Every structure is written in C-alpha cells, then in structure tokens.
Amino acid sequence: MAITMEELRQQFYEHLQQANAAEAFEELRVRYLGKKGEVTGLLKNMGAIAPDMRKEYGAKVNALKEEVESSIRKRIEEAHARELELKIAATERYDLSLPSSLNEGSYHPITLVQREVEQIFASMGFTIEDYDEIVDDYHCFEALNIPKHHPARDMQDTYYLSNGQLLKTHTSAAQNAIMRKYGAPLRAIFPGRCFRNESTDACHENTFFQMEGIMIDENISISNLIYFMKTMLSEVFQRDVKVRLRPGFFPFVEPGFELDISCAICGGKGCPSCKNSGWLELCPCGMIHPNVLKAGGIDTEKYTGFAFGLGLTRLAMMKYGIKDIRDLNSGNLKSLDQFVK
Amino acid sequence: MKVSMNWISEYVDLSGLDLDDLIHRFTLSTAEVEDVYHLGTEINGVVVAEIKTIDAHPNSQKLHLLELDLGDHTDRCVCGAPNVRVGMRVPFAPFGASVVGMTIGEATIAGVVSRGMCCSAAELGIADSSSGLLELPADAPLGKPVKELYAFEDTVFEVDNKSLTNRPDLWGHYGIAREFSAIAKRPLRPLELDDLNKYDALDPVPLGAIDPELCYRYSAIRADHIQKKVSPIDMQIRLYYCGMRAISLLADLTNYVMLELGQPTHAFDSRMVGTIGVQRFPEPFAFKTLDDVERKIDPETLMITSDGKPVAVAGVMGGLNSEIVSDTDSVTLECATFSAVSVRKTSSRIGLRTDASMRYEKTLDPELCALAAGRFLKLLLAIDPEAKVVSRYTDCWQYHYPEIELHFDKAFVDRYTGIDIADAQINDTLTRLGFGVTEQNSVFDVKVPSWRATKDVTIPADVIEEITRIYGYDNFKIETTMSALRPVQPLRVKADEKAMKDALVKTFGLHEVHTYLWCDAKKLKDLNIPLPENVYLLNGMNPDATVLRTAMMQTLLPVLKENRFYAPAFGVFEIGRTVKGQREDGTVNERRTLGVALLSHDRERTVFLSARDMISSILFDMRRIRPTFERVAPINAWEHPANTAAILLDGKTIGTMSTVHPEIAAEIDKKAALVTLELDMDALAEIGEADLKYREASRFPGIDIDLSFVVDKDVTYADVTGPFFADRDETLQGISLVDIYEADVKSMTIRLSFVSPVKTLQKAEVQAYIDRILAVLAEKNIRLRTV
Fold first, then answer.
1. Residues of chain B with pLDDT under 50
2. What predicted TM-score, i.e. pTM, was given to this entire model?
3. Which chain A residue lies closest to B505 (C-alpha atoms)?
4. Domains and CATH numbers, chain B
5. Which residues from A are below 8 Å from B570, CB to CB?
C-alpha cells in the first residue's frame, strides 16, 4: 500500500497550510479532488479492500473528500474575506464636509407665498387668473364704481403713463375683465403686482403684490363671505383663525368690511404688534357692489358675490419675518437665496 | 376725530351702560376706534377760591403771596402767575389735592412755605400750555369742587379719519350720537336750535353773485352787541378734549358748532364785510389767510368776497383781513355748502388742509346750514343774552340733492345676509338711523335722510350695510356656499410660469429676483446701456426712474453687477412684464417676459452653450418641441454682434439669447463670461404642446456610419448635418456629433444611425443615400477628410 488515508490527510493539511493564493487553492483542489486526484485515487484501491470492509472504506474516503473540499472552500472564503477587509480598509473616506459644487437655486419669497395661497384656492375650485400690470382708467377706477373725482385717482397715488394709461393700483383692476371673460357663476383669484406713487421706506414700497378673489353665484351672502374668509385664512396660517368684520369703505363693495384676524403673537390678549387690540387688520372685503357687477355684465337680479383682497407682500413679510419691505425688490442674492423649497 | 362721550350723552341717554363696551361696539358697527382716553380722573380736591389779598414775596419780584377765600375758610399759597388780581376766582388745589401729574404737598418756594396751588388751565388738563391762572366766573360758588361745577371727567375716543371718508354725517358729535342711539337702542334727543323764522322781518345780509356751480348753498346771519369774549369753561373743556383750542367766544362757537354738527361755519367781523359774494377770479393773485401765510390763488379757486374783494378761501380758511379781533362785537356768520371736489382740489393746491376743508371734502348735507345757524345763535344768546340778531337768515340755496327713496323686500335682505333678520329689527335700526321707513308685509319703502343722501346711500345694497352693521357681524351664523362644482383648468401662462420657475430653480440652480417695471437711468448709464425710448411715468417721484423697461436686461443686468461677488458662477432670473412700445391704438404692448442673466468664470463658449442647452431642455420638457437657434443681428446694446441668437419654437421666434457686448461686459465684470436670455412668455403660451406619437422600436439591428469632415472655421454643425435632414432617408434614425476639433480648420465627425423596421440593414443599402448627400455638401465645399 502506498499511502494511508491518514497520511494523505496529513499531507493535504500541510499543503493547505502553504497555499495562499486563489490559483494555489485551485491546484490543491485538482491535486486531491480531481479525476486523477489523490483522494479520488483512494477509491481505486477498493479492489485491495476486503469485501466486508469496502463499505466502511468507501464511506471514509467520501468523508475525507468532503473534508478536503470544505477545508479548501473555507480557506478560499477566509482569503476572500481578508482581501475584502484590506480593500475596505484602503478605501478613501470621503470628506462630506467639503462644500458642494452644485448650484442651488432659490425662489423669490413672493413666489412661495403666492403658490401656497393659490394652492388653497385651487383646492376650493377657484380659477387662478393673471392680468396686466398696465391698465386704463376704466378698469382701475370707473368699472369699480370709483367716481371721477375720488381721491384715489389723484396724481399722488397713481402712476400715470405718457400714453394715457396707468399702472394698476390694486388687483381689483382685473375684476371687470375677469367677470367679462367668465361670466357668472364665477370663482377666481388673481394675484398681481400693483403700484402706488409713494416714497419708499422700510414699510412702504411703490411696487408690491396683492391677491384679489371674487366669488359670484346665486345667493352668495355675507354669511358665506365670513365662512369663506375664515376657512381660507385658517389654511393660510395653518391654525384656527378667529376673524371679525368691521364696516370698511371701499367703493367697489357694498357692504364693505375690514377683516381682522386674532393676533397670533399675543393670542388676542393685546400686544404692541396688534396695538393692544388683540386683532390685526388683514384684508378688506365685501359684497361686490351692484354697479361693479353690472359693469362686468353680470345680472344683479340673479347673482350676488363677494370680493376680498390679500396683501401678498405683507403676508410674505409676516411669514418670513422680513422687516424691510425694500429687501424684496433689492435683487440682493445674499438675502434672497434663502428662499428654497 | 376725537369724540367726547359727555357730548354724546347730551343727545343720547347712555346711563347704566358700560361706555368702554359701547365704544368697542362702535368699532364693530360704525368705524374703527383707535384710542380711548379717560380724562380728568387725576384732578381731585380742586375747589373754587377767590383771591382776597396779594402780598409781595420777600425774595422774588415775580412771585406773590396770596390769601384765598374758600367760602368757609381761607388758605394761603405762593403763586407765580402774572394774571393774579384781587377778587379773581380761580381753581385752588389745597394741600393733598391733585392736578395733572402731581399731588399738592408742602413746598418751600423761594424761602416761603406754600401748602397749595392756584391752577392754570394746563394744570387742570384742559390746555397744552397756559400763561396764567384759569379765571373762573365771578359767581362760581366758593369752596365748591371744580369737578362738580365743570365736566372735567370725560371718556374721549379717537376715530381714524380715514374710516369716516364715506360718512359726512359722522364728522360731528350729533351724527355719532345717532349711531350710539342705534347701537344702544336708546332715543336720540333733538338739537336745541334758535328759531330762525322769527328774524324774517329783519333786513337781509347783503348777498351778491354766488357761484352757481361750486356753491350749493350760501347763507348768512348777523348778530350785534356781543359783549362776552371768553367761552364758558365747559365749552373750553370740550373743545380741548376734542383736539381744538379755546380762542375767543366767537371763534370757539364756530368750532363748537362744527364739532357738534360737522358743518363748518365762518365768523366774519361785520365791520369788515359788505356785500358778500362767492366767485372765482380770472387772474391769479396772492391772498393772506388768517394763519398769516400768503397763498397763491388761481382761477379755479372759489373765494368769498366782500364788495368784490376776497375775504376767505371758500371752505378752507378765512382771510386775515376780516377775522374776528378783540374788539369785534358784531359777527356775520357764514353757513355754506361748497362742492366737495372743488374744496378738496383747492386745499391740495394751496397746501392747506383744515378742519373745515376736511369736512367739506366729504360732501356735506346742505340742510346743515340752517341747523348750524340756529345752533350757533342758540348757544350765543344763551352765553351772551345781550347779543342781538340784526338780520334775517339770508339764504341762497342753489342746489338741492334729489330725495332718495329705496324699495326692497325681506327676501332681498335675506339673500344678501344669508341669515334671518326680523322685519321689526330692520325697521327699528333704519328708523333710529334717521331713515323714513314704511313696511308692509315684509316690503320696505325707505326714505334716505338728507345727511346720508349726498353720496353715501343710493341703492338698496347700501341699506343692507346699515341693517347688518347694527345687527353686528359677530352675531352672524356662518355658512358655506351651495355652489356647483366645476373642474378648473389652469391658465397656460400660469402653468408655464410655474414650470419655467421650477426648472430654472430646481434643475439649473438659478435665483429668482424681482426688479422694477421702470429703468434706473443712472444704473443703465453706469453700464453704458442707453435709456430706451418708451412709454414713461408722468409723475414718478424719482426723475431717474420713469422710462418703462423694454427688456428684462435693463433691470437684470444691474442686479447681475451688484451681485458679481456673490459666487464665481451664478444666474438670476425674473418673469415680469416688459413694455415693447405701443400698439396701434396707443395702448402699451405689455409682454410677460422671462429674463435670465448668467455670470460665470468658466469659458464663455461653455456658458453660452449651456444656456442654450438649458432653455432647449426646458422648452422641450414643456412642449415636446425642440427649439432651434438662429444667429441674428443684435438689437439691444448688450447683445454681442457675433453671438446673438433668436430662439425659435415651432418655427416662431419666442426669444433671444446672447453673450454680452464687450463694452458693457467690461462695466459689469471684466473677467467673467456673461450670457443673457429673454423669452416672450406670451408668445410661448400661443404654442401648444406637440402630441406624443409612439414609435415602435425596430426588432432589427441598425448600423452606425461615422463620417469625418474637414471644414472651414465658419462652417457650423447645422451646415454639415442640414442636408441630411433636408433630404432624409426613411431609415435615417438620427445624427449625432462624435468629435469636433478646431484649429485653423475644423474637423468634425458625425455619426449617422440607420435602422429599418423590417430588416437588418446592410451598409451598401444606405451608401447611395450617403453619397447623394455628400455630393450636395461638396457643392458647399464641405468634404470628407482624406487620410
């Protein structure tokens, strides 16, 4: 007999000990387990085994075969693991604190506030309209029941243009055109840029944004107006807003109201922000004046409606705590680049 | 305007009601109250005293030692007032009493101990400053607390004048009292008036020509033998609490009547007026108003004249030449109504806004004239019984407002309010507010009172306001509408604007800014950009900011410059309006315009082509149409002659992009590459989205054929590929650029991709096509590279 099983096992382990690369493991596998391999060769000795011992012998060889196979596999796995470990250890740790090279853009704060409000109205079935910045006397005043000699038309409030037109002083200037475009029933909002001829300071701008809304249908009432304003403002401010109406005079509504909301800062107890009244004057509103409806081609026998105006610029300033209104038109990216969404 | 609750209470009994609560309800029902003051509460223990003796102060020339008679005892004090006189009755604050800002203790004044103080009007809080003691009437009971004699304690509230612009009737206490009568549901007492009819037999005040257009009513009445010069203390207190100053009896009376009725009157010294006229003068002249300022009077200004000479600016202010003086004992009282517009314009022209002009501007009720005259005389004769009316009430009433009657029914009210307000309540509210109401079976006939009929209440909707504001908006049940739901399609311009902004901000990292609608001439000059010729503001405050922008770059390039140190590479954009001149009908050609301005320290070519890729990608995303770009001649100063391109979508020009002209670039940033882009969003909105047509992918492999050309530097990629598109083989799937190298000549490798839906293509099958096109190219001197 050439070599015993035990000797072969010893020899294999010696060889396995020495092997360390992938090729060496493959070599070992062929040498011991290949068709002409040494373990396989043991089976060829079967003829020399006593018949009654053959079964036991066969089982032993097979056990050895499995042992060799799994030992090699184990070593391969170990080597692989070690290799991977080295590779991972050698991998560069990226510096996440390095500045980004990607340019991140920003929206103008008015865009963000406007979108928020538009979304609320869109969800309530309002059409969102867009209207000219330059209008004529008819649309800005006449059609809104603002008579010829009303102080609002004075030169000191309105920018008049060399061609006889003017810069719209309020978003209401779109009411007539929108009524004519859609007819009744109608629910629409129309944000827009407005202009007033006044000197600028931290609280005053000659160029600012408003948003007007109108709703016209059969039997629209003051009761609906209050409901609507409360619902809308609660959405805008993301809290249950208390509102109160006071009489307010605007030629294009009758009755007209000043709408106050409960002061968020003091919760209605009174503080410097609300001049100790507990209320903040937020938006003018009212039932659309029959003359305005008529001018817009709406049948006043059949329809009534309400209108309201929201100061988008003021809303943006409240929301983001912008103290100087002039920042908004400054084009200064150092302050404007914060408005991301 | 300041409102005294004592005064209001003269006309409405508010006893038992909480005044502060009522004032709060006034805010909710009538007009916003800005402030509430509780006046006179500080004054305590001040009594009437008579100066018995005046002794010299041992250490001072100015101070005196007074002995005072308080009725049941005497007291002493040191006093520095210059007007002390034996027998004079004055308010005296003994030890322990308090006046405004202090409590009287023991004080040593120039070495003499004083335990008390004689008071001036200012010390009692009824004047801003005083030069001497407040003189009380000679019959004021000695020792009596002054607060029991005079109404020092009052609740006064201030209403924002702006919230009263539409309510001429609220510019006097009587009108406000009428509101409180409706709010508190208590009766309104009638005004106490002198009966003017009893003077009908007297001579008229001579009236001449009265401007028929601007003077609606002119009335006058004259009184002589006026001896009293000083107003009663209570009247002085009210005037002061309501923001005016006691001057002299006659001046005070005109002010008092104005504060009470809202009707301004003017008191002329009768000696100074002859025949009174109301007229305009054809030539401008200078006129001194009683504030001693010379005013320029132009031909539009309505003047009051005496024998043809101007004596007052109608409705604004009297003249210095006819004012009440210290020896005036005869007054000619003017009660008139002038055109509101005329007074407002005059007041703004001459730069003088007075309590009178403010009221006239609101369109006063002409009925008030006779009430004011009757009230003035009632007060005058009560204060000075010696006074004598010497003329009849002379009245020239030229314009009567039409009477307004309105009809509506309960259903109309219900429709407007959305709630159920009872007939009786409607009736009660309107009646209390002075409306004449006839109601039958829920149908209302309402007569508008004259003081609400000048402009304020003209249609039934105006009456709704009266009913609801007194009902109280806080009492409204609130309810959603019952309206049919309809789908809402977003406007294309709005959708485009959103898509554009989102892409520019989110995908391309640009910053949105807002700039003005007009050019800043100075900033443009700094950038060597000429101010455009365009429509301009007629009345802008800043002469450098009047011309409207014709392009976004006129306002964006200055922003780019101001931010040039913001980052090595950044871009700003704005979607705003530009005005591209006027249309044929003279109106402006207002365009929604996107402006993009980029600054980068990268190569200009890269920045320019990236901008092209950016807009191309955005437009394709919005419309499924690839824009094309055509080199065009520059129009604007900042556009570079070599690299200005029109942006075309679906064959229509919708914008321009360019690198910046070196002369202008140098003013913005010498080192950076600058690129501008403008897109007409209105033109874009006219182009619809292309349909998505599904194309099945071929199941057969295609072939790619690369062609390398050597061309002149000026030859573009479009020049090379154009003929392939112009005469496109049906199997030509696409063309792409493989490589481009530019030196003295340009070498360009393009790849043609062919694929057939029915078979595997062989090179030979497309060679004929390629050769045909190469022949076309060769005619333009575009040839394949020969190795």
1. none
2. 0.85
3. A105
4. 2-40+155-184 (3.30.56.10), 47-152 (2.40.50.140), 196-397 (3.50.40.10), 407-473 (3.30.56.10), 492-685 (3.30.930.10), 703-784 (3.30.70.380)
5. 103, 333
